[in-house]
Amino acid sequence: MRDTISWRKDLCKKLRNSDELQQHIVSSLVNADTKVQQRELKRLAQLVADVELGLTLLKEVAPEEPATSVEALLKGYRFSVEQLQSDRNWQLIQNARFYLIKRKGRQWLRVLQEYINLPEYY
Predict the structure, then answer these.
(1) Measuring CA to CA, how many Å separate 41 from each of 6, 26, 37?
(2) Are 24 and 115 in contact (CB under 8 A)?
(3) Distance in angstroms (rounded) separating the CA atoms of residues 65 and 81
(4) Residues of the chain with pLDDT under 70
(5) Mind spelling out the 3-state secondary structure of 24-64?
(6) CB 108 within 8 A of CB 66
(7) pLDDT at 122
(8) Best CA proximity match to 122, nearest among 69, 60, 32, 51
(9) H or E segment at 72?
């Protein structure tokens, strides 16, 4: 079975344990029970980890491009742009596509927007 989430396990744990993220969840879900807050904490930690991986990929292969360009990279087409002609860059993109399989297409734009709207202290 393909394991697409173990790479982010330690990072997500650190994020879930951060006081700032916990306080953000509590303040944004004031009337929610603990179980709902914990689910949201887990979801946001995964979102942050995934977006950070996508942004790191972009910084590595096409640093001049906007963050929305990750959407095109995750589609898997080898566009005829200089950065994608490098076999090393292409392999990095393929690796990221594997780990971010659930963030392809418009899903990337949705999580990127949510990430942008999070407070900066994460």
Answers:
(1) 17, 9, 6
(2) no
(3) 12
(4) 1, 78-81, 83, 121-122
(5) HHHHHCCCCCHHHHHHHHHHHHHHHHHHHHHHHHHHHHCCC
(6) no
(7) 45
(8) 51
(9) helix 70-75
- DSSP conformational letter for 98: H
State the amino acid at position 121 in one-letter form. Answer: Y
| Distance in angstroms (rounded) separating the CA atoms of residues 54 and 70 | 6
pLDDT at 79: 64
Q: Pick the closest to residue 57 from 75, 70, 47 (CA basis).
A: 70
Q: For 80-105, how does the pLDDT look when each residue is reduced to its tens digit (9 = 90+)? A: 667 677 889 889 999 999 999 889 87
Q: For residue 116, what are its two tokens?
A: 């942008």
| Tally of residues, the chain | 122
Q: Which of 32, 92, 37 is nearest to 59 (CA)?
A: 92
CA distance 118 to 35: 21
Helix (H) or strand (E) holding 115: helix 106-117
pLDDT digits (tens, 9 = 90+) for 107-116: 999 999 999 9
Phi/psi for 120 (5° steps) reads -75, -10
